[in-house]
Each structure stands twice: as structure tokens, then as C-alpha cells.
Amino acid sequence: DAIREVVTSLKPYVHKELIILNTAKALEAETGLRFSTIISVGLKDIKYPFSLAMFAGGTIATDLVKHEPLGVDIASESEKTLRILKDTFAADNLRVYTTTDIEGVEYAAAFKNVVSILAGVVNGLGFSYGSETHIISRAAGEVKKLVVHKLGGEEKTFSIESQCWGNDLWMSCTGNTRNREFGILLGKGYSTEEAIAQMRKGNKTVEGINTVKAIKKLIEGSEGDFPLLHGVNEIVFEGKDARGTMAYLIS
């Protein structure tokens, strides 16, 4: 994944204490590692201190430019870093919330893309909005169970009022987002390769694909506890029929 190349290329330019703020809502595909973990390991030999932070929430660039009222979570283990970043980003149209649960925020930001793909699949299959929200709520429950009980995130990070989860999940699953659009194409019968090619025609990337791939590693041995997360991996990477898979999972 490109994150390791970025970290390696960054090392020669670190000449003083710095804050590294991650805005990528993804996990490393092959390992399931969070980007903060990869950055920490990649920069462990530099002599200057650094702190890591994560910026996440339902913020679309065009909405920010239009001065729409929005909210974000910024996470870091360093209280000093949180104070600096809140002072830097808070504005009259952007409310900044802070938390020390960087693990939970990174996982929430990445996994909401997976739930969005699932929501799109249900929509593309022609099911009702109620069916879509049914799958969203169940998949969100699986993510919360996985992160809080297995991966180390805090339960409060996965509340409805959380910007990195409740806010961004709602927007990603019901709005005009790339991950949902990709899922709709899968639901309409496109293969993963065909759906990606279709998205590229509009210069759109699908951020959630790497996290879908990472799911296989993260739930290994516990697939039965996470049927929807396992199911989306089967649809995207194993070529399973979307209609048959979702019909089984919805029943």
C-alpha cells in the first residue's frame, strides 16, 4: 500500500518536532493495520519527537468551501496535540470534538466505508429503503462488536452522536458517496473490476475497498460472528453473487 511509501519518503524531511495528522479513512489491505501503527513503526528511527492524530467526520470538501455547518472528531493520545489541532481547525462553521481514542476513530472512519458499500449493494438490488437501513444497522452493530470487543476501540466512539461514526456513517450510507455508488453497481450485477472501471470513468476512487480486503484478516476464525462483514468480502473479492449473498444475509 502507498502509505508505507509515503512514510519512507517523509523521513528525510523530518527536521523538528511535528504533528502527523492522518485524514485517510482506510486500513492497510493485506494486514488490517491502522495507518497510525504503520507511521509509528516507519518513523521509529528518527531522532525528533512526533505525535500522531486522526481527523474524521462527515466533512465533504465542497461543503467546507460553502461554509456549511459541520463537525469532526480529532483523535490523538497526546492532550497537547489535541489542543493544538482544535485551535487550528475550529471555525465558526466547523465544530471540533477531541478524543484520545485514536484506535477507535481510525477503525470507525475506515469501517463506515464498508457499511456504505453494503448499503449500496442493497439499493442496487432494488430493495426498499427500509431494507437498506436494516442492513446498515446490523452491519454497524457488527463493526462496533468487532472494534470494541476485539480490536481495542472505545464504545463511546461508536455512539450515534460521534462525528467519526454516527455522523459519517449516516452521510456515507445515505448520501451521494463513492463507496455507496460502488456498492450500487455491485448490486446491479457489475463485477468488482467492472464497477471499479465504471467509477474511474468519473475519476472516482473507492476508499473502502482496502478495508473490505482487510476484513478477512481481522475476523479470521470468527466469520460466523460477523456475517455481513464476511459477506461483503465474499461479494467484492470472491465474486459471490450479490443477490444470493444478500438474500441469505437478510433472511
UniProtKB/TrEMBL annotation:
GO terms for biological process: carbohydrate metabolic process; glycerol-3-phosphate catabolic process. GO terms for molecular function: NAD binding; oxidoreductase activity, acting on the CH-OH group of donors, NAD or NADP as acceptor. Keywords: Oxidoreductase. Signal peptide: none annotated. Residues 101-243 form the Glycerol-3-phosphate dehydrogenase NAD-dependent C-terminal domain. One of its GO terms (cellular component) is cytosol. InterPro entries: 6-PGluconate_DH-like_C_sf (IPR008927), 6PGD_dom2 (IPR013328), G3P_DH_NAD-dep (IPR006168), G3P_DH_NAD-dep_C (IPR006109), G3P_DH_NAD-dep_N (IPR011128), NAD(P)-bd_dom_sf (IPR036291). It holds the Pfam family NAD_Gly3P_dh_N. The keyword Oxidoreductase applies. Belongs to the NAD-dependent glycerol-3-phosphate dehydrogenase family. This is Glycerol-3-phosphate dehydrogenase (NAD(P)(+)). The lineage of its organism: unclassified sequences, metagenomes, ecological metagenomes.
